[in-house]
Design brief:
globular; six-stranded parallel beta sheet; about 40% helix; 20 strands; alpha/beta
Length: about 650
């Protein structure tokens, strides 16, 4: 056997061993083989290695592979040890030693398309010193071009009229800062009004939906006579969409009472339809990644508001921008410091990367002063580019001024000693307590579950009498509301401290206490999370419901879902893709809020346990937060580790 053939054979075996040990997805091995099969001859080992690493990084949420990382050794990005990478890489030697050398080597492979070449049907794309899967390069290019075009296009604004309305809309609001700090909510409305793209970011309690409700009122007030605004509300999950609609309706109704006849805001509330998931909005279809709405069949909207934008992955953002009419306005709301999407990309994080520094030009500062009456401090001036002029970061949290807020800020700043001190000094007081159960075992989580879920199970045992009792819907609503007040969050899916292990253990503990009677797959009181969109039943990935008796069919079970104050249900036997939901991942909890949140950390840190995950878990709690951690330094290690997702989006926007 020739040396090259022996090397490539050894490389395939090394990749297979990593997959067997669970350190590499089998999909990544299969993709590397697919790429190798497209060539006319024996593939160079360097190409096989690069293809496998690129596919694996996509599974970790990266949209591309920086060749500099490949040259230096991507062990940390892959979650491997240095020894694992060295053992794999030795089968592909000699490897290029620099990003430039890697680019030259890959550019010579027929499976790689280099920017500027004529043909374009290869699975890999080389863009400078970044290597992409073709579809992610296409998605990043689409998002970059659309974002930059929208950020550059501004509308003429009657600043005198806008300032008058903003003074009315914010007349009854408390100033968001102290001293000379401007009202960033008011500024966000003024800045968003003048463009086709607005990004409003901020942590929990900073008033993102409060602000956008006033922005909608401002759009309504300043629209040309007789010209209606077609407004759509959307979010990545059904839960987040329902909360968005509920929050905006509440804010607009409260505002209507304050502004009176000057602005018929209840008409605006009635005109807006229900908030929808992005999949539903775009017209997702079974068995295809394509949507019904796209550039050739755009959405019928003038204003689109997307909440929880940190959860929107790259492919979805590309589809959304492609389907948006050229004249429509897009408003993105989200917390840039939360976890990024489960799938590849960290779009909001890329778009808001420098939001805290402002970067507003003199023209923006002058416009903001004229339209809102607020002076942006000189420290936020500069030239952060066109996107910065349409981005506003809300900086004052009304909800998180107590221990939970202080803990979230400490974690977000990477200050582990301060976080430890706050947790140790915390209490279970009603004003917003934090608690830390250190050196804990699973039994501590089970005890918390027993007390936390006892609230909804108490109501469950007090079922209304009669199969068609008129109080049935109210009883269901009360059970759902109580269940939604408490939740256990996990960092991982597997193991004793993961979703699977804890759900089994919690179910057994509640049954032991006589609060549940599990028997078979479906039983009364079982909480479930939908894990796949099902358009036939109208349930979507992330929806959470409770299994309760069907009042119309004795012995039958239905799963009830709460959307705002409305209750809907589906026969349990019609739901195929669900899992028990006493415990859920932090990722799945985004867009939700619980009165008491428990975050259970695993024994081993691992690449998934990061600062953003801990921060997101903390900020799901509105009144009480409990951290449960096993012995060790897992919390300090997590707070020290920031999520890093490789992307070329910011560079593409700047270079567009």
């Amino acid at each position: 056997m020739a040396r090259a053939e022996a090397d490539i054979d050894a490389l395939w075996k090394a990749l297979a061993r990593l997959a067997e040990d669970g350190n590499l997805r089998r999909l990544s091995c299969a993709f590397a083989r697919f790429v190798a099969s497209l060539g006319s001859g024996q593939p160079p080992p360097s190409l096989v290695l690069a293809a496998g690493v690129l596919s694996e990084l996509e599974g970790h949420g990266h949209s591309c592979l920086r060749l500099a990382d490949l040259a230096a050794g991507p062990a940390e990005l892959l979650g491997w040890s240095d020894e694992q990478w060295t053992d794999l890489a030795r089968h592909a030697r000699p490897l290029p030693r620099s990003a430039q050398a890697w680019a030259r080597e890959l550019a010579g492979c027929e499976q790689v398309w280099e920017i500027g070449a004529f043909d374009y049907d290869q699975p890999l794309v080389l863009d400078g010193e970044r290597l992409y899967l073709r579809r992610y390069w296409r998605d990043e290019m689409l998002v970059a071009a659309a974002v930059r075009a929208r950020a550059l296009e501004t509308r003429p604004v009657d600043t005198e009229a806008v300032r008058g309305w903003l003074d009315v809309l914010f007349a009854a609001s408390l100033k968001t800062g102290q001293g000379d700090t401007p009202d960033w909510q008011k500024l966000a409305c003024a800045i968003a009004l003048r463009g086709k793209l607005a990004i409003i970011t901020g942590g929990p309690g900073t008033g993102k939906t409060y602000t956008v409700a006033r922005l909608l009122a401002l759009l309504f007030a300043t629209a040309p006579q007789g010209q209606g605004q077609r407004i759509a509300l959307a979010a990545p999950t059904g839960k987040a969409a329902a909360r968005l609609k509920q929050s905006i309706d509440k804010a607009l109704n409260e505002l209507a009472d304050k502004v009176g006849a000057a602005l018929p805001l209840r008409e605006l509330t009635q005109r807006m339809g229900a908030a929808r998931t992005l999949h539903s909005l775009l017209g997702a279809r079974p068995d295809t990644r394509a949507f019904a709405h796209h550039r050739g069949n755009p959405l019928d909207v003038d204003v689109l508001i997307v909440d929880e934008a940190s959860m929107v992955h790259l492919e979805m953002m590309a589809s959304l921008l492609d389907a948006l009419p050229p004249g429509a306005s897009l408003i993105l709301l989200g917390d840039k410091d939360q976890l990024a999407s489960v799938e590849a990309g960290a779009v909001l994080g890329d778009l808001c990367h420098d939001a805290q520094s402002g970067g507003y030009t003199d023209a923006t500062l002058d416009y903001a002063r004229a339209a809102s009456g607020e002076d942006i401090p000189p420290a936020f001036g500069g030239d952060g580019g066109s996107l910065a002029q349409q981005t506003v970061m809300l900086r004052h949290s009304r909800r998180f001024s107590g221990p939970i807020g202080q803990l979230a800020l400490a974690v977000n700043a990477g200050d582990a000693p301060a976080a430890h001190a706050l947790l140790r000094a915390g209490s279970d007081g009603p004003a917003g307590g934090v608690r830390w159960i250190e050196n804990a075992g699973q039994q501590h989580v089970l005890q918390l579950a027993l007390s936390g879920y006892g609230s909804y199970l108490d109501v469950l045992t007090a079922a209304p009498n009669g199969s068609l009792n008129t109080n049935h819907e109210e009883w269901v609503r009360q059970i759902l509301q109580r269940f939604e007040s408490f939740r256990i969050l996990c960092a991982v899916r597997d193991g004793e401290w993961g979703v699977a292990g804890l759900n089994d253990a919690i179910t057994a503990r509640l049954a032991q206490a006589g609060l549940l009677r599990p028997g078979g797959e479906w039983y009364v009181g079982r909480p479930v999370m939908v894990t796949r969109n099902d358009y036939g039943t109208g349930v979507f990935n992330g929806d959470i419901g409770l299994t309760l008796p069907d009042p119309a069919r004795p012995g039958a079970l239905r799963v009830y879902f709460l959307e705002g104050d409305a209750v809907r249900s589906v026969l349990a036997t019609r739901l195929r893709s669900v899992e028990t939901a006493f415990a859920m991942t932090v990722h799945k909890s985004q867009g939700s809020e619980f009165r008491h949140t428990v975050l259970a950390l695993p024994r081993e840190r691992g690449a998934i346990l990061t600062r953003e995950l801990v921060y997101t878990g903390i900020t799901r709690a509105s009144e009480q937060f409990t951290l449960v951690s096993p012995p060790g330094t897992v919390l300090a290690e997590a707070v020290a580790l920031r999520t890093h997702r490789t992307s070329g989006l910011r560079g593409m926007i700047a270079a567009a």
